[in-house]
Write a structure and sequence with these properties.
The chain is an alpha/beta fold. The protein is built from 15 helices and 14 strands. It has two domains: about 15-45; about 50-410, Spore Coat Polysaccharide Biosynthesis Protein SpsA, Chain A. It has helices spanning about 1-10, 15-45, 55-65, 80-85, 105-120, 135-140, 165-180, 190-200, 230-235, 255-265, 305-310, 310-320, 325, 330-345, 400-405; strands at about 90-95, 125-130, 150-155, 210-215, 220, 240-245, 245-250, 280-285, 290, 295, 300-305, 350, 355-360, 360-365. Mean pLDDT is about 90; it is low at about 45-55. Bound molecules: guanosine-5'-triphosphate, 2-acetamido-2-deoxy-beta-D-glucopyranose and magnesium ion. Guanosine-5'-triphosphate binds next to helix 8.
């Protein structure tokens, strides 16, 4: 049966001419593909895409051999106030994103920072809010400083859903991150806050005349007298970014950030600083993945020019376009950290170990400044994984983030006890 009905099709034999034509077409096609490939390779710039994933133990070990030596500021303690005030000052401001309802929290932060530092230096305070500040907020904050205060309403385009965001995907992310217990994963305003701190604070025209900012959140504590000007210190030493905690973040809030950053590095290799040191943020045991260490960004003293640079903004736009501030919960801390690491030399980054500070459960207190501080000295590793909740499956790096950043002898351990040889009580 089968044979009689279908066999004519099975027995189809193409003519000689037909076969030749097909062979020629095939050959031409292959030749074209080869040509396009060759041209493509030829036209690509000859910069090799760095294989950061392949960063090997040798590089990692090399980094670990030399300890980074942060610069030591010199004190103004004995400089008379008139002399201090007559000095040319950096163009700098204390900036704070804060809600009207957080008036008591910001009063606390202001009292601390004014008493420990700003009553002598009088840097202006600039408060930012997504709704107008009320009169009570203005009166009570003004009352705590001799410096100028500015109250800024954030423009709507800096605090709203960009048009390329798919709202239903955003809502799913709020539900998902909320359900798995990522801190404030369900909260819309938190996403705007993180995005504003990543890509907008420095764009407001009120900061156009300034070179430096110090970020101050409500409810933070400053425990030590700061008897030098950190802004002047940074300016004089060509520093671009200062931090005082370097700790693990909950990786579930930014699962795609590192992959996107690697793609960015492939697309813009020329933007990466020739002295960029990625070794301390790379998990060398885990295929070159990001180890989730971050400068804890609620404390930052930084260069506005760095954030205003084309390089930083190319990176911010690249990440922002992919939607991770809304589809995930990208934090400004890991984003700033990756940018600082990629676009600056480590020498331009400073660890303000001497600034005793507390934000919620995270606190760091220097060890050798007893007479200037009202806090118990903390070891270097104090806050290492406080932000990573039990339910997060993420692996910890072998060494704490700050030790990885410092490198050298800070990583040495006693062979018998497995304890670090240096506790950090010495600085
Ligand atoms: N004006 C304004 N400020 C905000 C908003 N969301 C956050 N902020 C500010 O940003 C700060 C940090 O936000 P939080 O939600 O406290 O974030 P966090 O400190 O990382 O997280 P917690 O440890 O949970 O407090 C807040 O203290 C506010 O000062 C907002 O919607 N409007
Ligand atoms: C300003 O400070 C003074 C002195 O601490 C206090 O008595 C007064 O109530 C404050 N005023 C406001 C508006 O907070
Ligand atoms: Mg908070």
């Amino acid at each position: 049966m089968f044979d009689s009905v279908y066999s004519q099709y099975l027995r189809f034999r193409p003519s000689r001419v037909y076969t030749r034509a097909v062979q020629w077409a095939g050959l031409t096609f292959v030749a074209l593909i080869v040509l396009v490939f060759a041209l493509h390779r030829h036209l690509q710039p000859s910069v090799a895409t760095p294989s950061y994933a392949a960063l090997n133990d040798a590089v990692y070990q090399a980094h670990n051999q030399i300890a980074f030596q942060p610069l030591v500021p010199s004190s103004d303690k004995d400089v008379p106030l008139e002399v201090l005030r007559a000095r040319p000052k950096p163009k700098a401001a204390l900036i704070s994103l804060v809600r009207n309802s957080e008036i008591e929290g910001i009063e606390l932060s202001m009292r601390h920072l004014e008493a420990r530092f700003n009553h002598k230096y009088n840097y202006p305070w600039i408060f930012f809010n997504d709704v107008p500040f009320d009169d009570d907020f203005k009166a009570r904050t003004k009352n705590l400083t001799n410096a100028e205060c500015h109250y800024v309403l954030i423009p709507e385009e800096h605090w709203s859903l960009p048009p390329w965001i798919d709202e239903s995907r955003f809502i799913s992310s709020l539900e998902y991150l909320g359900a798995i217990g990522v801190g404030k994963g369900w909260m819309i305003s938190y996403r705007h806050m993180c995005r504003w701190n990543s890509g907008f604070f420095y764009k407001h025209p009120i900061l156009d005349d300034y070179d430096w900012y110090w970020r101050v959140e409500p409810d933070v504590h400053f425990f030590c007298d700061i008897d030098y000007d950190p802004f002047a210190f940074m300016e004089e030493n060509n520093l671009k970014y200062g931090f005082n905690m370097n700790i693990l973040d909950d990786a579930r809030s930014f699962p795609s950030m590192w992959r996107q950053t690697q793609e960015f590095m492939g697309d813009y290799p020329e933007l990466i600083h020739p002295d960029a040191d990625l070794s301390w943020i790379i998990d060398h045991r885990n295929d070159g993945e990001y180890n989730n260490c971050q400068f804890f960004s609620n404390f930052e003293i930084g260069s506005l020019d760095f954030f205003r640079s084309k390089t930083y903004n190319t990176y911010f736009d690249y990440i922002d376009r992919k939607g991770g501030f809304f589809y995930e919960r990208f934090g400004d801390a890991p984003l700033h950290t990756l940018a600082i690491v990629l676009f600056l030399s480590k020498k331009e980054t400073h660890f303000f170990r001497d600034i005793g500070y507390q934000h919620d459960i995270n606190r760091q207190c220097p060890a050798n400044l007893f007479d200037k501080c009202s806090c118990e000295p903390t070891v270097l590793d104090e806050n290492f994984y406080k932000l990573v909740p039990m339910e997060s499956p993420q692996k910890k790096p072998d060494d704490s983030c700050i030790r990885l950043w410092l490198g050298g002898e800070w990583l040495d351990k006693d062979e018998k006890t497995g304890e670090y040889l240096k506790s950090g009580y010495s600085f």
